[in-house]
Amino acid sequence: MLMISHVQAQESENLLPLQEGSRALQFQISENFNLESFSGSVFSYKRQLSDQKATRIGLSLSSQYAVTDYPDDINDQNDSNMQFNLGLSYSRMNYINPDSEIKFYYGYGPGVNFGLNRTVQDETNSKLTNRSVLYGISGIGYAGVEWFFHSSMSLHAEYQSSIRLNHRRIKQTNEQNATDNSIRNNSTVFSLGGDGVQFGLSVYF
Q1: How confident is the model at residue 34, as a pLDDT?
Q2: What is the spatial distance between Cα 200 and Cα 205, in angstroms, rounded to a whole number?
Q3: How many C-alpha atoms does 51 have within 13 Å on its Cβ side?
Q4: Which of 136, 144, 152, 161 to pair with 11, CA 20 to 30 A apart?
Q5: How many CB atoms lie within 10 A of CB 1?
Q6: In sequence order, which residues have a C-beta less than 8 Å from that of residue 1 and are 6 or more positions away?
Q7: Which segments of 70-178 are extended strands (E)?
Q8: Distance between CA 101 and CA 165 in Å, rounded?
Q9: Mean pLDDT, 10 residues at a time, over the chain (205 residues)?
Q10: Please, which residues bridge with residue 204 across strands?
Q11: pLDDT score at 180
């Protein structure tokens, strides 16, 4: 009996999710209970450094390419659009009461993002190209609660706010009758605000 109790205690200890070395994939619970990445639209990963501290990495990635033809247009117009967006965030998490059934945590860290957008309107005697490049940095802070309904799965609600600085460069080129005319402009936007409450699911392994 003593040996069985000792083995059970070891197994119970191994199943503790908030221990050093534990890892988790996090998913956001969106409308209609669809699961998406929690801190990035592609990848969200958390690793426990101890029962009170963890790190979280979020990666977001989106791209699109579209072509539109106008066969009945007398100028033989052909339009194309290409979009690419990439974001990366890193944060340190702190658990206030890791031994409680409902665990309170907070975190903070930096983020970077990059975006590229290119549209082309091509006609018989002219071609209009718009190219936009976006660079951004951010500071992210959040606080939330986490509840384990299974030894390796939890639900959490989290409020997030951020400070963001984005710089955009735009170049418009008009090619017509063998001549090129280009217009450039730059813009910088600073924003501060909350991103609302997110509900999520974590799967530990």
Answers
A1: 60
A2: 17
A3: 9
A4: 144
A5: 5
A6: none
A7: 78-95, 102-122, 126-150, 153-176
A8: 38
A9: 38 64 89 61 86 95 88 77 96 95 97 96 87 97 96 93 97 85 94 89 93
A10: 24
A11: 82
Residue with tokens 């990666």, as numbered in its chain: 59
In single-letter form, the type of residue at position 109 comes to: G
Measured distance CA(95)–CA(105) in Å, rounded: 4
pLDDT of residue 6: 38
40 vs 85: CA distance, rounded Å: 12
Q: For the chain, what is the domain count? A: 1
Residue type (1 letter), 42 = V
Q: Does residue 88 form part of some domain?
A: yes
| CATH number for the domain harbouring residue 132 | 2.40.160
Structure tokens at 53: 């501290």
Residue 170 lies in a domain: yes
Stated length of the chain: 205
The DSSP-derived string for 37-70 is ESSSSSEEEEEESSSSEEEEEEEEEEEEEEEEE-
At 34 the three-state DSSP class reads: coil
- In angstroms, how far is CA 149 from the centroid of its own chain? 26
Residue 56 lies in a domain: yes
Of residues 44, 87, 16, the one with CA closest to residue 198: 44
> What pLDDT does 77 receive?
80
Query: How many CB atoms neighbour CB 58 within 10 A?
Result: 23
The range of the structural domain enclosing residue 108 comes to 19-204
